[in-house]
Specification:
Layout lengths: L1 H12 L7 H14 L10 H5 L7 H28 L2
Helix pairs in contact: 1-2, 1-4, 2-4
Length: 86
């Protein structure tokens, strides 16, 4: 999860990465889950042994983006429903 979160953060912080930021996080987390990687237990064990020194703050950023992407998706669905009713 550390590697995925670091990559999501890296791409999401670039100006070029903004248009696809929230779609990207959904897709990358879906692939991570389908590949059988676990979720963060917040015990920082992975951070302590990570050979690249990736910290769990990247997981927090990824989780924020994932939650925001779900909120934005609901907002788009609601807006589409309102637009089609008229």
């Amino acid at each position: 999860m550390l590697f995925t979160s670091a990559k999501v953060s890296q791409l999401g912080l670039l100006p070029q990465g903004q248009p696809e930021r929230y779609i990207r996080v959904q897709k990358m987390v879906a692939v991570m889950d389908a590949s059988g990687f676990g979720t963060c237990s917040n015990h920082r064990e992975c951070e302590a042994v990570c050979p690249k020194g990736i910290g769990i703050e990247f997981i927090a950023r990824m989780n924020r983006d994932l939650i925001k992407s779900a909120f934005l998706a609901e907002k788009r669905i609601a807006a589409a429903g309102e637009g089609g009713a008229g």
